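User: Modeling request: complex.
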Amino acid sequence: MAHWLYKSEPSVWSWDQQVAEGAKGTHWNGVRNHVAKQNLMAMRIGEQGFFYHSNEGKAVVGIVEVIREYYPDHTDETGKFGMVDIKAVKAFPKPVTLDDIKKEPGLEKMILVNNSRLSVQPVTDEEWTIVCRMGGL
DNA sequence: GCCAACGTTGGC
DNA sequence: GCCAACGTTGGC
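Assistant: Request completed. Predicted assembly structure:
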């Protein structure tokens, strides 16, 4: 199964808010980038991803899971973009910061490091395993 | 708050 | 269809 990384500014949508939504989860709306859209469209129910806090915190703080596959984002008036629904699965005992990721051998290729502007990214199996271990999971 | 990197828009 | 100008994101 594929793995993903979702970026959010905590002042806009935080991990705590995501956790508060519980098992019903929330829609991940607002994506207006075609590469990110392709990633959203490739997601399947049950696939997991990292929840990353950008700007403030700059750390992977938890794991989320896709509970509804790609469907239209009604907040997009152009009708071109869509979204998925995700729910919080578990928090990292120890958040993995961007600094930690940059220093860790094996994570040099992470999109988070190389293309900081992409808001929804794929994560390889190797990267997934390493980051989970670093965060205490 | 600044600015580099990236995407998008629009004139030609 | 090219590319300059502009807007946005996000690390620092």
